[in-house]
Design brief:
Distance between the termini: 47 Å
Strand content: under 5%
Signal peptide: 1-16
Transmembrane segments: 25-46, 52-71
Order of helices and strands: HHH
Shape: elongated
Number of strands: 0
Number of domains: 1
Largest sheet: none
Structural class: mainly alpha
Number of helices: 3
Helix content: over 70%
Keywords: Membrane, Signal, Transmembrane, Transmembrane helix
């Protein structure tokens, strides 16, 4: 992961957490999933290093899963708020 990607990710995730807006997490999730998938394919095809794929993919996948679970939590809370506003 490049320094630019890390800085952009931190700023984007901080804004999403501060504003509790799940839509701000969507770009990070899409870019993270595509980068993860393309990176695994390139490493496997070009270098054929299975030992390198294991540790790096576990870390990248765990980061992605944490953000995705937070996204789902925010999405659920947003739906509950809309439902309670509709009732009252």
């Amino acid at each position: 992961m490049s320094l630019n990607m890390i800085v952009c990710s931190v700023l984007l995730l901080a804004a999403a957490v501060k504003n509790r807006n799940e839509k701000l997490l969507l770009p990070w999730l899409v870019v993270g999933a595509s980068t993860f998938t393309i990176g695994i394919i390139i490493i496997y095809l070009l270098l054929n290093l299975v030992a390198y794929i294991g540790p790096s993919s576990i870390v990248a996948l765990s980061f992605w899963l944490v953000v995705y679970s937070y996204y789902r939590q925010l999405e659920k809370n947003q739906q509950e708020r809309k439902f309670t506003q509709f009732i009252f």
